Amino acid sequence: QYLHPFLERVLLRSADLITTVNEHHASIIRRRCRRWTRVAVVRDAAPLLDPEGLPPADLPGIRDRCPHRLVFVGQLMRRRLDELLATLEQITPTLRLQALVVGDGPDRSHYEKRVAASSILGERVLFLGYRQQREALAIAATADIVFSDCWSPAGFPVKVFEYMALGLPILAKRKGSVCEVLHDEEDALLYETPTDLAVSIDRLCKDPVLRSRLGRNARASFLAAHTWDHRRAELDALISEARSA
After folding, report:
1. How confident is the model over 30-53, as pLDDT tens digits?
2. Contact 26, 20 (CB under 8 A)
3. Which residues, at least 6 apart from 219, have a Cβ–Cβ distance to it below 8 Å?
4. 18-27 pLDDT, tens per residue?
5. What is 192-242 written as a DSSP string?
6. Beta-sheet pairing, 189-191 with 38-41
7. N or C: which end of the chain has fewer CB within 10 A?
8. Cα separation of 164 and 96, whole Å?
9. How far apart are CA 37 and CA 14, in angstroms?
10. Quick check: 46 and 222 in contact, CB under 8 A?
11. Backbone torsion region of residue 168, taken as left when φ is above 0, otherwise alpha when ψ lies between -120 and 50, otherwise beta
């Protein structure tokens, strides 16, 4: 109980430079290290991606079932789909939306049983299981909405950078770390409550101009600040500065 935090503090204080993936995590480390160590933010990133360069999406029997599609990609853990499924169950049936869940994990069986027990969700939600990265992104690229939760206040969903690189319309949970990268109504829609989530899903399904604008702005934001070349330059500058200090 006490040894691990002690060893962590010793390790952190022995470092000349610590990098974290967002400002929220950096603030936690700074509180623990006090003044002994420099902490800098070097975010994750993604490679340059082009939807045309992805393999064909493997969606047998799915593509024409509904006019609107929402895609979630990620591990099924920590009850990450609770809010989304509850919202999908409440959205009016006249909104013909299908949600594709790409991923696996310890919560999958629970969610499959929940979907099977609901006539509404049974029509709206399909579990596609684990897919390789490029195949998962190819499926995401067919969506009207790419959905991302954010279960860790000190983390950031790396797939969001991939969605930005592909110029996809992003709907994400409003967390401090997410707001450091995405801007509501500019390059994504951010939600806080299930009501917000339902409204945002409805807007994105019904407004192709909004989807196009958000996707275009998301890619522009990615190219301006979140490629691996940006990260390499940031890290090289930090290392050079630390060596000369």
Report:
1. 887 766 678 899 999 999 999 999
2. yes
3. 164, 165, 166, 167
4. 889 999 999 8
5. SSHHHHHHHHHHHHH-HHHHHHHHHHHHHHHHHH-BHHHHHHHHHHHHHHH
6. unpaired
7. N
8. 25
9. 8
10. yes
11. beta
